[in-house]
Amino acid sequence: MIRILMLALVVLAIVGCATPYQSRGLAGGFSETQLDENVFQVSFRGNTYTSSQRAADFTLLRSAELAIENGYRYFVIVDAERYSQTGAYTTPTTSHTTGSVYGSGHYAYGSATTTTTGGQTYFYSKPRSSNTIIMFREQPELDGLVYDAEFVARSIREKHGIVD
What we know:
Elements: H1 2-15, E1 29-36, E2 39-45, H2 52-69, E3 74-90, E4 94-104, E5 107-117, E6 121-136, E7 147-148, H3 149-160
Antiparallel strand pairs: 1-2, 2-6, 3-6, 3-7, 4-5
Helix pairs in contact: 2-3
């Protein structure tokens, strides 16, 4: 019984919070796929407690970390997607009936009450974010936004209270 209670508490702790900055796991997180020497696709999947802005920030943070880890200082986003996986679930219904009967002679009187609970439908949304990035050692002469990986990583870690 204690093991079941502990398992229930662990599950509640995992699913009761926004997805943390972590490699993809049970509650979501980031992942990446290397497409070329200096090209990555970076994704983040949040749970229902994660805002779309948090998912976008964590995708950008992982993009910056990949650039730094691979010896690059700058990166550009050449493709970005933001969307949500949506769905619904309905709780099961349960009915409980109580009654009483009173009798006297050839007559019987009675009443019954039925209470039904459950059957509520809940809608959810899980944010998703994806960037395809190209990394550079020197700041490229490009039209558009060029990110400084060290600045982006520091800024987003500070915003979300992430400690190295």
